[in-house]
Each structure stands twice: as C-alpha cells, then as structure tokens.
Design goal:
By secondary structure, the chain is mainly alpha-helical. Helix content is about 50%, strand content about 10%. It has 23 helices and 13 strands. It has helices at about 70-80, 90-110, 120-130, 135-140, 140-155, 180-185, 195-205, 230-245, 260-265, 280-310, 315-330, 335-340, 350-370, 375-380, 415-425, 455-465, 490-495, 505-510, 515-525, 525-550, 555-575, 580-595, 615-620; strands spanning about 35-40, 50-55, 55-60, 60-65, 385-390, 390-400, 405-410, 440, 450, 470-475, 480, 595-600, 605-610. The strands form six sheets. The protein has a three-stranded antiparallel beta sheet with strand order 5-6-7. The chain has a two-stranded antiparallel ribbon with strand order 1-2. A two-stranded antiparallel ribbon has the order 3-4. Helix 10 crosses helix 13 and helix 17 runs parallel beside helix 20. The chain starts with about 35 loop residues before the first strand and ends with a helix.
C-alpha cells in the first residue's frame, strides 16, 4: 500500500458527513457488509477474489467478533481501505494482506487490555513499531507465545522439555495438528505458517516422536529484520485508523500516530530491499536460446509421447508398453540433455520431468518477449492468442499494474509457438477457450490424471541447469540463481545486446517478424518496464561509449567519424589539465551521446543519428 499520508491531509475536513449508510455495498464486496466473512474481489475483475475472515482469534477462547468496538473499527478499516479518496488499494490480494495486518494490531490491543482503538497510547505505538521490525511474528509475538506455552506446561525451558510431551495429533496421521495447537495457545490459525512458529512446532513434534517433514526439520531460525517497505505497510495500517476517523463511525486513535511521517519512521528501522540481480547478457541469451530449442525441437517429442500414453489404460500390460515408449522417447533426446536431467528416480519419471521442462521453456519465452510479471503470464488462457506468421501475432495479457486491465500486445513467432505448445499440453480442443494455459493433465497410465501445474519459482533453476545456463562464470563454476522477476528485464537486454556477438541462431529465426518499435512502444507504457528499459538503454550507451573511447570498437560513417572526433577533443581537453583516464573519457563521451543522439541496434549495424526528426529520417534508423 502506498503511504496514506501522501493520499490525504490530516487537516482535511470531513466532506463525507457524519451519516453512515445503513447498508454498505460496493462492486468489490461480494458479501453483505454485516457478515463476519467477506468475499472481496479486484476492482477491475470480480473473478479474482479473496476471503477475509473477521472471526479472528484474539486470545484463547476469544474472537474479534465478540469485541464490538475492536470489531467495528477493523471492519470499517476493511471498508475504507478500498475508498479511492484514501487509498490506492484495488486488488483482492492487497486488500486481504492489509486487513490481516489490522487484525494483528487489534489482537495486540486486546493483549494489553485495550478493547478500543481510542485507548491507544504513544507507548503502544512505540511497542508496535518495535514489533513490526520483525514482521507478523513480531507483532503477534506468535513464536514467543508458543515457546512460553510449552515451557508453562512443564515449568522448564524449551531446550529442557522432556520427551513425549503432549501434542495434538492430526487425524489419520502421525503428524502434529498445527491448527489445534494454535487454538490451545490462543494464536490465530494463520500463525502456524510463520517460519519460526513452524520451526518451534517441528522441534516439539520431533521430541514427541511424531512425524516431521524434511522441509520443517531444521533449527529454530533467529528473528529476521523486515525491509523498510514491509515495516511501512504495518505503520500505514496504524496510521490509516486515525485518518479514516473523519469518515467512519467507529472508535479510532485520538492522535496522529506518526507526526514525522510513516516513511521516515520506517526508513529509520528496516533494512533496504535487495535489488534483483541482473543476469549477464550472454547467460540470458543461452537460457532463451535453449528455451526456443525446447519449444521447437524437444516439445513436439514430449507431446507425441503423451499422446501415445494417453491411449493406454492403467493396467499392467499397458504400463509395460508405456515403459517401452518412454525409453524410446528418452533415447531420442541429445546426450547432453539426458545427462543434465539425470533421472535419479528412473526413466519412468521422464514424462513428468520432460513436461516440466517444456512448461519452463514456454514460460521463459512468453515472459521474455511480453515483459509481463510472473503471475500475469500464469494468468494466460488458451484463447488469448490471435494472428498468423505472415501478419503477426498478438497476445491478450493481464496487466496488474499500475491498473488491472486486459490488453492485446504484439509478440514474435516464438511466443506463438510457446502458446500453441502449451495448448497441446493442456489438450485444448475448442476455440475460444478460457482454460488456464499453465494447467495440464498427465496420462492415467502414469498413475494420475488429475490437473497438474508447475511452480516456476522452484523449477526455474532446474531448467536452467538442464539447458546449460546454470553458471555465470563457467571457468569458476559460479552458479547463477534465476528468479522469475529477472525476466522483466530480458526484453530490453535482448533488444540492445542480441547482436553483440551472441550465437542465437534459433532465436534470430523466430524474431524475424518482430516489429521492435511497436513492441518497444508497448513495453514503455508500463511504468516499471519503462524504468527497466531506460536503465538497460543507458547501460548499453555506456558500454558503447567505453568501447569507442578505448578504440576496441571500430565505428564508421558520418556519425562514427563525428564520435571519434569528439573522443579526440575530450582527450585533448583533459590532457591540458594533465588528467586523462579511460573512465573519464568514456563518461564524457556517454554524456554527449545521451544528450544528442538516438542509438538503434540493428542486425547488421548499430545505427546512430542526431536527436532531430530530419536527421533520424535521413539516417533511416
């Protein structure tokens, strides 16, 4: 949520009046206002929903809905946080996350004996600020309360608790019943998913002889300091309860919680967010090139194998025939691919693993050439592709920021091939079709025919390893960690760097119909993508200026001669001051190029012209 303090002034008069409608209704609220469970949706798309449950545990045996004043304030917060006069929240996910924070704040108030927001004191604000530094666990004190619960049962420290302690056991299993444990401790149900709470529960379960998964079997982690943005969201939630008092008919704080501003307070406490690292361009080329190969060469083999397995029933004889078909398909793949895939679970697991690789390749290509976010690509439907190889292809994408919308964007042939491959995998037969593109079914003969999906956040590095795009520095074997959000930058990187000596024959073929300027215009309409584009463009101009000033790049033509002359003049001027360095010359040349030139990479040349209409027309860049 953007800081509320910038959305409305504290001295603004209440233009909404004091009367509150008897019944509140809004397009995003798909339930009655008085219900304790709200189903809320995105402002622009009522199909995207979340459930907000106000039946929230404040303490052992006490629910929020049993405390009228706190309940009324939290519910009105949930209402006014969607008011466009006060907030920019317009999605169900952001709405849900914001209300969850307010629920935790209400629980804190109840825990210190305050059953109304009007009793909030400055000391409470200071405590909440300190707790918000450690996120939800800090505000709820969930892991601390869980440890205290165990210690109080046996009057001993956590490390000294006896074996075989009494823990609730889930029905029909030998695992801990985390939901029941939260109830016993008086914690909200959602607290069981907090990392430290899960770790404490796992430690206790292991000491009691219960089954513990390898994922949760680990030491209790130390509390982790939240980022500034995360802390700001907590402080925004507190601050908003005061701001909405001019509109709401509920009890709110009697003073402005953060007179110096939410942002300044958060910046003094949290850690800086880590910027997503940028993959080396050549590694990007390798991954995208290999993704294109999987789509064009390996994908059809996988689809053919699945088609043959689909005709077989799930019985011993059919399974024997399927094993033979799988082995033949497995041997048809290049040795390098087979070696990288490994198949530690046996060749029988090949169809599932191969499908995952095909899905990863399709996602990489679509994300790269649409510049869309992770969840926006996953939201694609089977009927979202239109066009032809001769007239061009268009993809109907969901755009979630700055405002949710569905928009047709131009895409190259390789994206069309990726969508068509995913349609075959999902067995789409009708047109148009609203079936999710990234959900598919495996043949029954493999033991399951239920719908399947693939978490790219976990599988992307596996695919990169199989595709031979794992190491950023092959000589030192430094593994690169791929993340879905890095792909937002790929389109700009490809545009500026794809002809800098990279061997991307397959990709170049697929890009032959790409109208780069049309796509560039689309990408830069998205503020975040536009920022990425400018950063990469500036980086490219800097590398170009560096190579020209050092003499590593041979430039020609009228503009090339002019740039070489400017470089000599810069060196002569610096020499008069007895100070000449490659970095200084390069930086000075870069300023000249940014200020007065348009630079356009072409397959055969980097075209450069003065930043005027006549010059650009003459250069025909």
């Amino acid at each position: 949520m953007d800081s509320i303090e910038s959305s409305v002034s504290a001295s603004e008069p209440n233009d909404a009046g004091s009367s509150i409608p008897a019944r509140r209704a809004a397009p995003w609220l798909l339930s009655e206002y008085d219900e304790s469970n709200w189903k809320v949706s995105d402002t622009e798309d009522q199909e995207i929903t979340e459930i907000i449950d106000f039946d929230y545990r404040l303490a052992k045996g006490v629910s929020l809905i049993e405390e009228p004043s706190l309940y009324n304030t939290v519910k009105q917060y949930a209402w006014f946080i969607r008011d466009s006069r006060l907030s920019k929240i317009d999605t169900a996910a952001a709405h849900y996350a914001s209300v969850r924070k307010q629920l935790a704040i209400a629980r804190y108030l109840y825990s210190v004996g305050k059953k109304s927001y009007r009793y909030l004191q400055k000391s409470d604000i200071e405590t909440l600020i300190k707790r918000s530094v450690y996120g939800t666990d800090g505000v709820l004190q969930a892991s601390t309360e869980l440890e205290s619960y165990f210690a109080s049962l046996y009057d001993a420290d956590l490390a000294d608790l006896p074996l075989g302690i009494d823990l609730p056991v889930a029905r029909n299993s030998q695992c801990i019943d985390a939901t029941e444990l939260m109830r016993r401790c008086g914690l909200p149900d959602g607290a069981k998913r907090l990392p430290r709470v899960a770790a404490v529960s796992a430690v206790m379960a292991e000491r009691s002889g219960l089954r513990v998964s390898e994922r949760t079997k680990r030491a209790i982690p130390a509390p982790k300091v939240a980022t500034r943005q995360s802390i700001q969201r907590w402080l925004d939630a507190i601050d908003f309860t005061y701001i909405m008092g001019r509109f709401a008919d509920c009890e709110v704080p009697l003073f402005r919680p953060f007179p110096n501003g939410v942002i300044a307070t958060a910046n003094s406490l949290g850690v800086r967010s880590k910027f997503t690292p940028v993959p080396p361009p050549r590694l990007v080329f390798r991954l995208v090139e290999q993704s294109a190969r999987w789509i064009s060469e390996h994908g059809p083999k996988v689809i053919d194998l699945l088609s043959r397995l689909q005709t077989l029933e799930d019985n011993p004889a059919a399974r024997k025939r399927s094993s033979a078909a799988i082995l033949v398909a497995w041997m048809s793949f290049p040795v390098s691919v087979r070696e990288n895939m490994g198949m530690s679970k046996g060749v029988g697991s090949f169809p599932r693993e191969a499908v995952k690789m095909v899905v990863a390749a399709c996602w990489v290509v679509i994300a790269t050439f649409s510049a869309r976010r992770y969840e926006e690509v996953l939201d694609l439907r089977a009927g979202d592709l239109r066009g032809s190889d001769t007239e061009g292809w268009w993809l109907l994408c969901t755009i979630t920021k700055p405002k949710r919308a569905r928009e047709w964007i131009p895409v190259p042939i390789v994206v069309a091939r990726a969508v068509e491959l995913m349609r075959q995998l999902a067995r789409v037969e009708e047109e148009p079709n609203e079936q999710n593109l990234f959900v598919w079914q495996m043949p029954a003969v493999l033991g399951t025919s239920s719908e399947m999906s693939f978490d790219l956040r976990k599988g992307l590095n596996i695919f990169a390893h199989i595709a031979g795009a794992k190491f950023s520095d092959p000589t030192q074997r430094v593994a690169w960690h791929w993340q879905p959000r890095q792909f937002r930058r790929f389109f700009a990187v490809l545009y500026f760097y794809r002809f800098e000596g990279a061997d991307i024959a397959v990709l170049s073929y697929f890009l032959r119909h790409l109208d780069i300027e049309t796509t560039r215009g689309y990408v830069t309409r998205d503020p975040e993508a536009a920022k990425i584009w400018r950063e990469v463009e500036r980086e490219y101009v800097g590398k170009l200026a560096d190579s020209i000033s050092s003499g590593d790049r041979e430039v020609g033509g009228a503009m090339g001669d002019r740039l070489k002359k400017i470089t000599r003049l810069i060196k002569d001027r610096l020499a008069k001051n007895l100070f000449v360095s490659g970095e200084t010359v390069s930086a000075s040349l870069m300023k000249v190029m940014e200020r007065g030139l348009v630079i356009t990479p072409k397959p055969w040349v980097t075209c450069t012209a003065p930043r005027t209409h006549n010059a650009a027309r003459k250069a025909n860049c």
